[in-house]
Structures are given as structure tokens and as C-alpha cells.
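tool=predict chain=A
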Amino acid sequence: MNWTHFTKGFTAFLKLEKSLSENSIAAYSRDVDKLIQYLDYHQLDLQPADIQLQHLQDFLKWINQLGMSARSQARIISGIKTFFKYLLLENIIRDNPSALLEAPRTGRVLPDTLNINEINKLFEALDLSNPEGERNKTILEFLYGCGLRVSELTNLKISDIRFNDGFLSVIGKGNKQRLVPVGDSALKQLQIYLHQIRSHIDIQKGQEDFIFLNKRGRKLSRVMVFYIVKDLAEKAGIRKTISPHTFRHSFATHLIEGGADLRAVQEMLGHASITTTEIYTHLDRDYLRSNILQFHPRTRVNSK
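tool=predict ok
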């Protein structure tokens, strides 16, 4: 199965006819790439003209099972719909299979967080007897310890790490760069992975600076990180639906629960607006109740 001809045409269409920005074009291309990854993974040797609505519905179930949020799913479906509209416009297909494809409803519903005990269970579920286990431990350290987005993690480079200063340089949304502090535990694990595991991989040309690599010596894909997290959750006996973003959410929530300044968390997460960071201030009711009972003056008065 080779869709290169179709994806190149789609990219040209978005650039020349739609006049979209490079970032938008890249986002649409990633959406189509995910569909291609799904077909490859399930060994479905299909051309665009062979795709039916059922294939796309099964694809939607697949990305949902990976733990992607409703908002991410809606973003992907939007890109898929645009791709098939292009194919229809170019007479590559006769009917648009995505016309009746429904995106999940989006809202500000927050994903589940992991408590400290659950985080520890995930680390304990790692199999450190194989090279992938050490790599995956490093991935968890950076997802939870730095609050990185999955795309920021997979694009992280050795040259981005400031070992002496304890910071890493991240290119986030909108191609904006930010500095994120990284703890001793994550740095120590990174050194183990780099020197004991990654140094033995036959690295492909052009991939030398990327930190997280697959067995073939290429940059780890976003989808693979979803699989790693999902598999670990099953091994750890955690029944919550978690994804790489769950670690980012847990990172921010635990910082705020611990008393971190909201604007400091905003900087670390790379949010353009403080209102986006405020969604991470949702704390469980027991935590809020214990704080109110402990600190509210009327509660202290009535308890005497």
C-alpha cells in the first residue's frame, strides 16, 4: 500500500489552493498519516478509492482505544474529511466515505488523573530486563516529570537537554520555544538510557539527535507512545483510560496541589493563556474539603 502520490497532492492542494500555513499543512498531513498507520497496522492493503465508511468508523474506534481525547479525535476526523474532499474534487474517488463520519462531542471534560500510587505502579510495571524497558522508563520520567506533550516528547533531541543547568528546551504549539526544568531522577534515567541502551542502536541517518528511538533506529512515533502507555496501564492493573496527556495533566495537578504558583505551571506547560492552565486546578473533592476544613476561619472557630 503506497499513498505517497495522494498525500503529496493533498499537501500541494492545501498549500496552493487553500493557502494554509506550514503548521496547518503539517497538522492535516499527520491526520492522514494516522489513517495510513491504522491501515498498515491492520494489514489492510487498500487504496483511497477502496475506503468505506466502516473503515473510517473502525479507525475512529482505534484512535479512541489508544486513549486520544475527544478533542484530538475531532481534530483528526476534520483532517480526514478534508483529505477525502480533496480526493473527490480531483476525481480520485467517486463517493466520499467520510461524509457521514461523526466526530465525538468535545467539551472541557478533563481526562482522568493518576495519583502518586498509580504513578508508582506504572513505574513498577516496567520490564527493565530489556532495552525497551529502560527507554520506556525514560519516557515516563519525561512525560510525568516535565509535563511534555507527546509530540514534544517524540521530537525531543539530545541537543535540547541542558544537563548542567537542569533544563530542557522544548518547541511547543505554534513553534514556540520554552525552557522546562527537569528533575534529577529524569536526568539520571536519561543518562542510563543514552549510554547503556541507545548507544547500542544502529541509528538511521538523520535521526542521530532524536532521543527516543525505535528498534530500527528511527524517531519514536506518537502512536507508539500511546501504545506504550496503554500497555503499561494494563500491566499495572490501572483501569482508567489513560494516554500520554494523562501524565501532563497529573504533572500539573500534583504541582498545584503541592502549592506551585499557577503562572509558573503555565510557563512550564507552555500555555499562551492562564485560563487554559486553570483547567488543571480541578482538585478532587476530598482534597478541597480537607483544605477548607483546615484553613477556613469559620471552621476553626466552630471546631473550638
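The radius of gyration is 22 Å. Strands lie at 161-162, 167-171, 177-181.
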